[in-house]
Amino acid sequence: MRVLVTGATGRLGRVAVPRLRDEGFTLRAVSRRSRTGDGVDWVAADLATGAGLAEAVAGVDAVLHLASSPNRRTHDIDVLGTRRLAVAAGHAGVRHLVFVSIVGVDRVPLGYYRHKLAAEQVVAAGPVPWSVLRATQFPQFLEGLLGGASRLGPVIGDRAVLAQPVDPAEVADRLAVLLLAGPSNRVEDFGGPEVLRFDEAARAWLAARRVRRPLLPIRIPGRLGRELRAGGLTTTATPTGARTWADHLADTYGGTGGR
Ligand SMILES: NC(=O)c1ccc[n+]([C@@H]2O[C@H](COP(=O)([O-])OP(=O)(O)OC[C@H]3O[C@@H](n4cnc5c(N)ncnc54)[C@H](OP(=O)(O)O)[C@@H]3O)[C@@H](O)[C@H]2O)c1
């Protein structure tokens, strides 16, 4: 199967590309910059303008759409860019568009999530038969949040917020299964093996990095806080990934990571 991967240089794309390639998919990978290597055919394309998209989708069977821009021009890139991609893929006769979204986009009131939900709707309304997989947070994302939360010294956060980190390599394996299954519309969410409170995740992170910092509890107000504490970012769907937060910390920092 010939598959175009957008977002191939991102956190998920970097692990998905070698895994899919090794499973026998013939890959074309998109970046805004021209690149070579990784045993795939790279094309330059920009979702914000549509430049290069027609060439990128020509002759592929499926598109795995991982590109996203959470912090800049999100509407342009995630919503309108997804539409540009879907239209180009429709013209090219692509038979399957697989889109990766996030657990909680319909529940947790964050601006980025509103754009992801809108992009899901663009995919569903578009001309190409589709699948949408919502995944929970990648551990690297959780680490980024913890890094931001401890910039001033103590780890500042709402202790009762729930997270369910999932290894991007396991998400990539799930995506390979979806590509082979063909268009399936919205499929079961995919989360990590355990739901952690923010304070548990923070303590394990500090211990793995051998850093002593106090936790400074705050309460995230309003509906955002309520949804985050009520598990808006988590899923009860099965199967889940197997790799835990402790596994990630042990791989990243050595030691047992609290296992
Ligand atoms: N991070 C998480 O915890 C998480 C959890 C669940 C689901 N997801 C979803 O999984 C997907 C991948 O996330 P990620 O964390 O791997 O993303 P990431 O590391 O932020 O990578 C973003 C990718 O988007 C591409 N991109 C950005 N703007 C673009 C544009 N204008 N045109 C074309 N490509 C553009 C970038 O490619 P170049 O810079 O090479 O152009 C890059 O490869 C996203 O859809 C995200 O919403 C993420």
Note down, in words, how this protein is organized.
The structure is a single chain. The chain is α/β, with parallel strands linked by helices and 259 residues long. The chain has a single domain, classed as Rossmann fold (3-Layer(aba) Sandwich). The chain is built from nine helices and eleven strands. The strands form three sheets. It has a seven-stranded parallel β-sheet with strand order 3-2-1-4-5-6-9, with helices on both faces. The protein has a two-stranded parallel ribbon with strand order 7-11. A two-stranded antiparallel ribbon has the order 8-10. Strand 1, helix 1 and strand 2 form a beta-alpha-beta unit. It is globular, with a radius of gyration of 19 Å. The mean pLDDT is 97. Bound molecules: NADP nicotinamide-adenine-dinucleotide phosphate (NAP). InterPro entries: ComplexI_NDUFA9_subunit (IPR051207), NAD(P)-bd_dom (IPR016040), NAD(P)-bd_dom_sf (IPR036291). GO terms for molecular function: protein-containing complex binding.
Detail the topology: elements first, then pairings:
Blueprint: E1 2-6, H1 11-22, E2 26-31, E3 41-44, H2 53-57, E4 62-65, H3 74-92, E5 96-102, H4 111-125, E6 130-135, H5 139-149, E7 155-157, E8 162-163, H6 168-181, E9 185-186, E10 196-197, H7 198-208, E11 215-217, H8 222-229, H9 245-253
Parallel strand pairs: 1-2, 1-4, 2-3, 4-5, 5-6, 6-9, 7-11
Antiparallel strand pairs: 8-10
Helix pairs in contact: 1-6, 3-4, 7-9
Please give a quick description of this structure.
This protein has 259 residues and is of the alpha/beta class.
